[in-house]
Amino acid sequence: MRSLTKTGIRILSAKYRSILIKCAIINASVFIGAFGATSAMAANVAIWQHYRGAVNNESDATIKVNADITYDGSAGATNEINRSLLIIKNTEGNDTNLILNGKCSDVSQCSDVSQTKGLTVGTGGALTLTNITMQNFKATQQGGAIENYGTANIIGAFIGNLVESDTTTTALGGAIYNDGIITNIKGNFTDNSISSSSASAAGGAIYNNGSITNIEGNFKDTNLSSTGTVSGGVIYNIGNIDRIKGDFIDNSASGTYGSGGGIFNRGTISSFSGNFVNNSVSATSGFVPPKGGAIYNDTIINILADNGELKFDGNYVTSSSGQGGAIYNTGTVGLYAQTASDSITFTGTSAVTGAYDVDGIYNTGTLNINGDGTITPYTGTVNLYNVTDATTARGTTNIYGGTVNANGNITQNIINVNSGATLASNTAGVKIIADGTDGNLINDGTINITGANSR
Q1: I need a surface site. Which of 11, 70, 109, 351 has the fewest CB within 10 A?
Q2: CA of residue 116 relative to chain centroid, distance
Q3: What are the angstrom distances between the C-alpha of 278 and each of 44, 312, 357?
Q4: What letters, b where the CB count within 10 A reaches 16 and e where it falls short, cover 158-191?
Q5: What global pTM score does this model have?
Q6: What's 430's DSSP letter?
């Protein structure tokens, strides 16, 4: 199979050209079967059973949905897709999503969790969702709405999906678990979550151990909680993501140990553009502090403002020993304000009781700042680096272009200000410190330290 057009027409290799793509149409009262049979079905459960049958059938099919479908808790096991193509599409136009409803907003409605899971795409399977909302599905281990080992292209929304575990098995991907290839995830995510009472948890909305080309949408009110380790309140990535575009708002991760209230990255995220607002991470152990209210990174992530202002606003950790209210980095983070009119701003405006290191950056890796725009760390006592212990390893800040306004303290082992770049501060009491055994402040550009101290 070579490609899939925007209209859902498949261009098949010779191996598949003889296959007839069948079609099922599902609405509130009539089901037209994938094999041409027609029958009137008024009950929701019957509609769901026919839907399940169309999903599980081994032949290729297109399911056209022109009304919401609600699961009632009695229709059988997982929706398993092992065919080379399944398309589920909304026939009512592109402006409105129709709902596949797992009906698990109330757990009492979902006594058999295996019956409330959404769609599982096998290693030989391929799924296309077009203008469909996956809502209120629930799983016990991973992928509340979608668990993918094949290929997928997803246009729709995810609301109220849940992974809930009371075993020692790690809970992964409240809405989507991906161990395959996803071309697109386009749509908003709201109120998705993971709750684990005895194990670790990762990726309150999305867990990625495969490849995702594009994620486009906003993530709001995602909650990741566990009595163990929590990583990635919204997205946990140990694979490859080419692009993320969207806002992360009011998401949280809370556990015995916690990292990344918005994103936990141990893979590659080539490009992120959007805003982080009021995201947080907390840890109850008292031994290991929470890290990265918005982002935890120990590999590679690039953050781009390419059309105006990108903001980190009110992100925090919930411990005075916590590190990186906005970003915790031991790998490589790129901050790119592409044009002179672009900016990346860390505002530090949280009014939450118990919020610490608000919008701070903790960097023991490499922080690359580039572009023609302006980077402004938070005006306060904690900014690019929050370390009071002089023996702690410090990182490197490379300023390749644009202007960095040091309105708060910058403490790094090496600060490189390259040709064409400006490191500036006119705030009294601010310290620009190249510290550590081999500390260096290297300037080939412009340093303006009016009202600031440097060494």
Answers
A1: 351
A2: 23
A3: 40, 8, 13
A4: bbbbbbbbeeeebbbbbbbbbbbbbebbbbbbbb
A5: 0.83
A6: E
SS (H, E, C) 270-297: EEEECCEECCEEEECCCCCCCECCCEEE
Report the alpha-carbon distance of residue 172 to residue 239 in Å, rounded.
Answer: 14
* Amino acid identity for residue 414 in this structure: I
DSSP class of residue 232 equals -
Query: Taking a C-beta distance cutoff of 8 angstroms, is the pair 421, 446 a contact?
Result: yes
pLDDT tens for residues 116-171?
Answer: 778 888 888 888 888 888 888 888 889 999 999 999 999 999 999 999 887 778 99
Identify the CA nearest to 180 among candidates 124, 116, 117.
124
Cβ neighbours around 346 below 10 Å, total: 29
Rounded CA-CA distance 204/193 in Å is 5
Q: Which residues contact 396 (CB under 8 A, 6 or more apart)?
A: 365, 366, 367, 412, 413, 414, 415, 416
Q: Is the dihedral of CA 115, 118, 124, 128 positive or negative?
A: positive
pLDDT tens digits, one per residue of 263-297: 999 999 999 999 999 999 999 887 788 999 999 99
Measured distance CA(348)–CA(324) in Å, rounded = 12
3-class secondary structure, 369: strand
Burial of 91 (0-12, 13-18, 19+ CB in 10 A): middle
Quote the CA–CA distance of 203 and 207 in Å, as a whole number: 5
Cα 315 to Cα 274: distance, rounded to the nearest angstrom: 14
Residue with tokens 């995602």: 222
In three-state secondary structure terms, 137 is coil
Task: Please report the DSSP string for 85-101 in residue order.
Answer: -EEEEESS-SS--EEEE
DSSP secondary structure string, 311-338?
EEES-EESSTT-B-SSEEESSEEEEEE-
Count of CA atoms in the C-beta half-sphere (13 A) of 71: 34
Cβ neighbour number for residue 142 with a 10 Å cutoff: 24
- Neighbouring C-beta atoms of residue 344, cutoff 10 Å: 23
The residues pairing with 39 across neighbouring beta strands, listed in sequence order, are 31
The two three-digit tokens of residue 355, written as one number: 């919020």
Strand partners, 157: 133
